[in-house]
Each structure stands twice: as structure tokens, then as C-alpha cells.
Amino acid sequence: MVKENEVPGRLEWRVNMPNGSSRILAPESRETCNRLQSLVMRIFLNIRGFLDKAWNLAINEPKKVVHCLKVGLALSLVSVFYYMRPLYDGVGGNAMWAVMTVVVVFEYTVGSTLYKCVNRAIGTCLAGSLGIGVHWVASQAGDKFEPVILQVSVFLLAAAATFSRFIPTIKARFDYGAMIFILTFSLVSVSGYRVDKLVELAHQRVSTIAIGASICILITMILCPVWAGTEVHHLISNNLEKLADSLEGYAAENFSVDGSKNVHEKDSSKRLQSYKCVLNSKAAEESMANFARWEPAHGKFNFRHPWKQYLKIGASMRSCAYCIETLHGGINSNTETPEFLKKPLNDVCMRLGTSSSKVLKEMSSMIKTMKKSTKLDILVDEMNSSVEGLQNALKIFPSYQHIPTPDPATEEAPTGTEEPSLKPTALSLMEIVHMATLTSLLVEIASRIEGIVEEVKELATQAEFRDESSKKSKQNQTKINGNDGNEHEVTMKTLQKV
Amino acid sequence: MVKENEVPGRLEWRVNMPNGSSRILAPESRETCNRLQSLVMRIFLNIRGFLDKAWNLAINEPKKVVHCLKVGLALSLVSVFYYMRPLYDGVGGNAMWAVMTVVVVFEYTVGSTLYKCVNRAIGTCLAGSLGIGVHWVASQAGDKFEPVILQVSVFLLAAAATFSRFIPTIKARFDYGAMIFILTFSLVSVSGYRVDKLVELAHQRVSTIAIGASICILITMILCPVWAGTEVHHLISNNLEKLADSLEGYAAENFSVDGSKNVHEKDSSKRLQSYKCVLNSKAAEESMANFARWEPAHGKFNFRHPWKQYLKIGASMRSCAYCIETLHGGINSNTETPEFLKKPLNDVCMRLGTSSSKVLKEMSSMIKTMKKSTKLDILVDEMNSSVEGLQNALKIFPSYQHIPTPDPATEEAPTGTEEPSLKPTALSLMEIVHMATLTSLLVEIASRIEGIVEEVKELATQAEFRDESSKKSKQNQTKINGNDGNEHEVTMKTLQKV
Lengths: 498, 498
Hints:
Chains A, B: It comes from Solanum bulbocastanum. Chains A, B: Keywords: Ion channel, Ion transport, Membrane, Transmembrane, Transmembrane helix, Transport. 2 copies of one chain form a homodimer. Chain A is mainly α. Helices cover 72% and strands 6% of the residues of chain A. Chain A is built from 18 helices and 5 strands. The termini of chain A are far apart. At the A-B interface, helix 1, helix 2, helix 4, helix 6 and helix 7 of A face helix 1, helix 2, helix 4, helix 6 and helix 7 of B.
């Protein structure tokens, strides 16, 4: 045992010996102690950091904690088969398979649990019957050929099933099933060589697997179910909002006329970066849309909800995010755009940025509420007219600048009432490049947003989004009275459409 | 049985009855037959398409076929434990666990197989000993409390282990181990309630798992091993080449002066699109770099090869690919750039595109050969001077155009010897936007390529890439004699550096 005693003036290390005496540590041993202490501290800090991380995860995503409790519950339930004699005898000591099924099959979302259950069922039944068949054939062939036939069949079928797992269509839907097929086939056909009551054994195993699987399905679907479909639905709608946020944030940061640039800098930089989530969510979208196909109708989703369409929306969203990334990447320019161009162009750019982000937000809320939006078309029109406005501005603005030339007559005694004469001076391309790039990236982003709009509309058609209710129309009508003429006209148009 | 008999003039369907008579089918039955036939045809075509796909996969990636044969071989080997009486008795009828281990653990790459084996071993041992401990504690508590203690411990540990699988650091390295931990702990602690010789059982299971795992490891490492490390290494180097290809292709398509645009159009469009692989390879890179960490030293890679650095290169490559995507996305412009600007700018753009793609190609070959490149710095310098050239060109070119103004005196009788008088006319911004955007995207791409260069150099340092051999220097020297002065100077500089 090492103890730290503070002696006035200097630090001393003492070791208390078992016989009661104590010894002051020599410098080398002290160094070792220090090192040991720092090691312990480091380990302790690591563990603390890890626990902090875990705690934050638990706080931020309570659903995951609930999932863990569900797994614990399922296992406790299935272990009852061991504790109750009649149940244990009922499955002939094969309760192990039920426990194994629960551990392997219970996943975070309902869809993935169902995927695994169905795959396990199909794989087990197919391989089990095939295994029994092969075993029968082999047993007819005599003692000499039996192992050969069994081994060759295992070799061939295992290789074929493994290969099928590389084929994309099989991989997406039956990867786990193929693995279970190999497992069951090998076990049944090979262990059949030693086990006599093969059919009975197979029957007991299938029934225990069925018990495990049904416990999983019940718990996952009844207790706070996490539907993969709902997850992908929210993911897409949140991502749309994130894109809108970072576009709006960018516009506010770069084109805003007032000095609102530095307000809540931390918040805004986080908002600006939120498009990055979109860049990285491909894998999550794909796996969840894939699992969603296994789920029954739930909430607002039918059994045949067009989950594939979400992937298309995701792809077009990413294509838009690439552009935003380029925009944010800071198109480098050494030369500043001249002020006389900057101000009016900033205005139109700001308008385009805002209208684009409005379109994105409208789509996000459209997906969230699963209602067709009457405002979407208007917002897209607005965005397009902003694009036109920007293009017109570009057409109108000449690439020269009126620079005041000093008039020799008035140079020494400026009267102040006369305006200095202006001479048009051409800008070099360098001075224009930065602004030109920004504008054309914004236009490109707007055109890619139109791509998203098309996919979202397709989703609305395929998933039969409801029309906006008459209640909403009424709300619009009340809005008309309190607003300016322009909005009045636009909303009237919408109402006619409805 | 349905038979098709062609009667001149029209088609008839006849059914031959068992008694020898035949009956002409009524239109409805014929329709049913037609439908059935088309259904069969469709199924047949689907199956054929599927088999075609599988065949193509097998042809294109023979490594995967070899993997399938390896799985078959491993299973055949492990099933020997069933066929040989002494072996079967040796493992006490627990041969099943060996088969199961092989099926579950055998993966495509050596790294992932090792990952699973190590995880399975750690998980099994940890959970097994913990399970036996809990079982002992529970058995001391008396018959009444035993199931309660067991069930509570299963609930708590399963929930905790499941939660740990959500923590990124655990998920990356020990996801499978946590699952095996839950499985083994539940089986051991719960089945201990019914099985008497628990320790003996555990011993037998561990030994069968060890047998299965070692068969897997031996086969995966000896027979045509697929190393995850080599895969990620090639993936990164190929992706660099793909980026170079699509950049070069883009430059050739858009800035080339001669009409080489339409040569091999199909090839070139495929080449142009190759950057898309880079956008989508994040998941593959991450999983492979993760598995590579489990692999022993192999080929040119040490045990502690900096696999994480590959992920950094991948990230900076993707950031460059986003820009290229924006470039390829076709920055939309309704107005063409005026010819007098286009030609000289095309030239500098072409030079920048070519020099950027050369840098990428050099990095690709540097990674491929794992040799430090002396040429890389020169190429980067070249790229930077191209960037400067482009920026200078932009600075020099004014944004006005000399348009010939008809001289009233010479209008009707042009003499041809006199040049028409030119009047400077300012361009509108619109006419410049397209070219300006292209140039600044190219400059941005070049700056992102520099980011890749830094990461690749870091890899070269960390992984201790060899210096280029003296043989290479000699080759350079011969090159000097045959080339222009500029290259001479540059290569001399390099030689001095070496």
C-alpha cells in the first residue's frame, strides 16, 4: 500500500510495511509510483469519459435505452422455459434454441427484427427439409457412401448459398436467411449421421425457434415500437430541414445587409454545418428503407408504402448537398467584389437563398404532416422568379464602373454643387469571378431543389398524401385580410386550385 | 397436357384427353393458357436474368467465387468431426458448436474473420466465467431465490451489453463480441439451472468453438487470402485514379481545342462518371479500414500500419469529389461565353485540369507502389502555377470586347487593307458568369487536391514509404536530355532534393 504524507517543506512517499514499520520511498520508487499514479489517473479519466459519453447517449436517445430494457425483458421471459419444469420438458431440453433466437433476432427496429425472423424461418425450414432429404438419400446409399454424399452436398450447397449472398438483390433481402440456410443445412445433414430421431429433433428445434421469434416480435411491436419506416420518414424530413437551415444560414451570413452576421455565432455555425448530415446519411437511409419493407401497416403508413421513393428523395437531396458543400467550402477569391455590384446582387442573392430554403422547409413539413401542400407550387414559382430576377440583374449590370475623374478646372476649389464627371472603367474578370460563382452556384442549387420537388411530389402521389383540409384553407383566407395585396393574389390562386 | 396445333389461317389450342380424344379449347381457356404461358415465360426470364447477373459477378470477381469454395471446404472439414467416431467422442457430441462457429465466423476478408474470431473468443470467455460465477452465487442463495437472481442478472447484463453496442467506439470494435457475450451469458447462467456438469459443458463448448475458429483462420489466411488492408489500400489508390480520370475527361471534353470531343463517346462518358464511385465508397472504406486493424503484418503492411490515415485521405477525396460533381452537374448558363474570352481561357483551364489530374495520378501510383514520389512536389508546383496562370489571365482580361464599328466612309466599298475601327463594348455579367464559375470551381478543386496531397504525404510518413530507388533517378536523368529546358531545370531541382 502506498500512502501520501505531506511533510512541511517537501513531499515524501512512505510505504507502511505489514509489520507496522514504515519506510520512506527512494526517488526511483517514487518515480515508479508517480508513473503508476498517472496511469491509474489516465485509466480513470478514460473510463469517466466513456461513461460520460454513454450517459449523453442515453439522455439524447432514450429510445435506445428502452430498446435495451426490451432485450433484457425478452431474455428474462424466454428463460422462464428453463425454470418451469413443464415448459422445459415440453421442448425436450431444447430451450437453448429459444434463447439463442432471441439474442440473435432482436434488433432495434421492428422492421429489422421482422426481417431476421422471417429470414430465419424461411432459411431454417428450407434447409431443414432439404437436409432431411439429403440425409435420406445418403442413408440409402450405404455406409460407405453416406459420409461422401453428405460432405459433397454440404460443400456444394454452402458454396452456392455463400455466393448468393454476394448478389445485390439477395443481399438486400435475404442475406441473413442465406446464412441460416447454410447453418441449418450443415447441422441437419451432418448431425443426422449421429442423431437417430432426426425428424423429432428438427420439430423441437423449429418450435423453440418459433417461441423465441414470437416473443421477440410481440415485445418489439407492443412495447414502444421503433418502426424503421417512421425512422426513415423522419430522417428524410429532418434532412430537408437541415438543408434549408444551412442554405438560409449561408444567405444570412453572406448576403445580409444589416449586421446580423455575428449574432449567436456558435448557433449559426452549427446550423451552417448541418448539411453535412445529409452527405453522410446514405447508408442509414438505405438500410432503414430496406427494413421498412418488412413492416406491417403502422401509423400513417400502409403495408405497401413507397419506401423506395424515399431513397430517390435522399439521392436528389445529396446531389443538392454537394452543391451546398461547394458553396460553403468557400469559393476562394483574392479579390473582393466591387461595392457597386455587391449591394444590388446581394439583395437578389438573399432573396434566392431565402426562397430556396422556404421550398425545402415546405417540403419538409409536407412530408412530416403527410399532406399535399398547396403552397409548394407557389414557393417554387417564387424561387424560379428569384432565379430569373438574379439572371436579369446579371444581364442588366454592366461590367464596368463609373469612376469619378477629377476635373482640372474644379480640382483646387470644389464647389460641391457640381457632380464630378464619371468615366466608365472596365472591371477585370478577376473582380467579378467571386460573385459570379456564388450566383451560379445558387442558381444550380435552385435547379437541384426542383429535382427534389419532383421526387417529393412523386412520393405524395404514390403514398396518397391527403389534400390540405378545408380548415387550412380557412386559415389562409383569414391571412388574406391581414396581408398585402401580393400575397392576397397568390393565395387566391391557391384557393382556386384547391 | 396442352398442345399447339397450327391450322392454316388461324391458331387453335387442342387438349388431348387421357382417353385418346382431343378437344379444341374455348377462347376463355385459351386465354387462361396464354396467361399461364406468359407467366411461365416471365418467371423463366427472371430466373435467366438472375443467373446472368450471378454469372457476370462470378466472371468479374473471381475472388468471391474462391471465397465461396473456401466456405464449402471449411464446412466439409469441420463436418469430419461428425463422421469420425474418435473425434466425435472427443468433443462429447458438441460438434454442433464447431459447425456453427464456422458458418457464423467465416467472412470474406481475413480481417473480418479475425475480428469475429477474437470477438467470439473474448465474449465467450468473459460471459462464460461471469455466468458460472453468477450461477454459483445463485445456487448458494437457495432454491427459492435462485431463479430470481439468475433472471435479474440476465436482465441487467443483457440490457447493459445491448446498450454498449450503441456506443460508437464499442460498436466499431466489439459489436459482435457484445452479442456473443449476451448469448453465452444467458445460455450459461440459465441453462446452469438444468445442467449439472456446467464446467465440463463449458469446457467442451469452448474447445469446439476453438476448433471451428482455428479451421476458419487457417483456411482464410492460407488459401488465396483476401486482406481487408490490401483492399482498402487498392480502393483508395483506384479512387484517386478515378478522380483524375473524370477531371481529365472533363477538361478534354470542355476545354479541348481540337475536335477530339466525340472520339469514343461511350468510353469517355463512363470515364467522366467515375468520380461517383468516390462519393459512394465511404461505408466500404470505413468497414475495411476497421477490419484491417485486426490483421497481422502481410505483404507490404506492418501490423501497425496507419489504416486510419486512409480514412482521412478518403474524406478529403470525397470533399474534392463534391466539387467535381458540381462541375459535372453542368453549371447552367443560358448565355454562351463570348469567343474572344473563351479561347485563351480554355487554354489555361485545360492546363489546370491536366496538371490537377496529373497530381492525382501521381498520388495514386505513389500509394500503389508505396514509394515516396519526388515528382509529386513538382507536379503540385506545376498545378499551383497553373492556378496562378489562370488567375493572371482573369486579371489581364478586361470585361469588354472590341466590336468593329462600321465606318460610314468605307461601308460601301471596303478596301480590305484598312482594319475596321474597334469600339470597346462592355459585356454584361451574364456573359461572363459561366466561364467565371468554371474557373473558380477548377481553382477550388486544385486547392482541395492540395488537401489530399497533405494527407497522402502524412500517410507516406506514417507508413514509412520507401524513397524512390536510384534506378528511377537515372531514368529521370535520361529524360532530361530529351526534353525542353523548363523540365530540365525542374528535374535538376528534384535531383538535388533527392
